[in-house]
Amino acid sequence: MPGFEPRHGSRKNTSPRVSSSSHRPLTPSRITALVLRRPELTQPNERELIARLQTAHSDLESAIELSQQFASVVRQRLPEQLDAWFNKAKNSSVSLLRSFAVSLESDYNAVKAGVTMSVSNGPVEGHINRLKMLKRQMYGRAKIDLLERRFLLAI
């Protein structure tokens, strides 16, 4: 049209950046990973972040402390500390930890065996999970002979 200049560029990103932080945002999964990470692998800035989270709220402090203790009991295979952890968790002010402890205690023998023994069925469960995934991918697409070949090739 005469008298109008053509538009150049896009107006999509015309607002200024509010921050240029190089830090990843704190998500629940990131916080969980930080809290449950082995202490020797935790960086100083991550320890500081965990300390700030603990001072933010007393329930959060209790949850972090009990989570780290449980991870330590499982990693270091300390079944003698399991009963003390159950008592602390069941008396915790955090309802999710209380219910977690009660559900674990309902199968106490299996939990104690899991903490005590070095044998794990994790690899077997991994193979079963992989085979189920292959089965789901092939559902309705092929007959049993092709499914059998794919299973054998996957092993």
Explain this structure.
The chain has 155 residues and is mainly alpha-helical. The protein has two domains: 28-116, no CATH class; 122-154. It contains eight helices and no strands. It has helices spanning 28-36, 44-56, 58-75, 82-90, 95-105, 108-116, 122-138, 144-154. The longest helix has 18 residues, at 58-75. The model has no long low-confidence stretch (mean pLDDT 85).
Q: Helix segment count?
A: 8
The whole-angstrom Rg is 26 Å
- Helix-strand pattern: HHHHHHHH
Let me know the largest β-sheet: none
Whole-number mean pLDDT: 85
- N-C termini distance: 68 Å
Strand proportion, as a percent range, falls in under 5%
The helical percent reads: 55-70%
Instruction: Name the structural class.
Output: mainly alpha
Number of strands: 0
Q: What's the domain count? A: 2
**Morphology:** flat
Low-confidence stretches: none
Brief characterization of the structure:
The chain is 63% helix and 0% strand.
